[in-house]
Write a structure and sequence with these properties.
Shape: elongated
Number of strands: 5
Protein name: Secreted protein
Oligomer: single chain
Strand content: 5-15%
Helix content: 40-55%
Order of helices and strands: EEHEEEHHHHHH
Distance between the termini: 60 Å
Strand order of the largest sheet: 2-1-3-4-5
Number of domains: 1
């Protein structure tokens, strides 16, 4: 069974958030005209984003848990100009940690289950409005689960050299002679 999550926010005139729907692989292939706007396809032990041609294989956590972690990462550190694949890279270490430590696996799976329970029908990832997800996160921000994920994302997301140019960061400067010789004194806004 393949599960498809439409991650676009519901349109303002849509009263209810978009729900997840289960499709068989045959139905998915037969459909042919499935809109792949902001869709994650979850099947087996993988998460695939067909539009942007990236995937994430899981070995210790459920793929649905990893998909929710990606959305959670985006909600904690929101950057509209950063593609989901970088958030997927940032949460991938949690899958490895879950394989090494059963307590970590339980904390993550239970934390995601708690988010889904608080979100109601469709779960956390099924909430179409960011404000609804943030309201849930404010209620759990003091939990060890949230603090662990948030803390790991600081380095997991921002230490990826591929996204530095998207923030205008050129990287470390020591090997290039330091910042003083590379525009430190440029004040073009005065």
């Amino acid at each position: 069974m393949v599960t498809i999550f439409n991650r676009k926010a519901a349109a303002p005139d849509t009263p209810e958030p978009i729900e997840k729907q289960g499709l068989s692989r045959r139905d998915l292939l037969k459909g042919g005209t499935v809109s792949l706007g902001a869709i994650l396809v979850i099947g087996g032990s993988s998460i695939i984003h067909p539009q942007f041609a990236w995937g994430l294989e899981t070995s210790n956590l459920k793929p649905e848990t990893m998909a929710t972690l990606i959305q959670l990462a985006r909600d904690i550190y929101p950057h509209d100009h950063i593609p989901d694949r970088f958030y997927a890279i940032a949460v991938k270490p949690y899958d490895a940690k879950a394989g090494e430590d059963p307590k970590t696996k339980k904390m993550i799976e239970d934390g995601i289950a708690d988010l889904d329970n608080r979100a109601g029908k469709g779960g956390y990832i099924g909430l179409g409005w960011e404000d609804d997800r943030l309201a849930i996160l404010r209620k759990v921000e003091d939990t060890p689960f949230f603090q662990t994920v948030r803390g790991g994302l600081v380095t997991g997301l921002y230490n990826q050299e591929q996204i530095w140019p998207l923030f205008g960061y050129e990287g470390e400067s020591y090997s290039k002679g330091g910042y003083i010789a590379r525009g430190f004194g440029d004040i073009e806004w005065l």
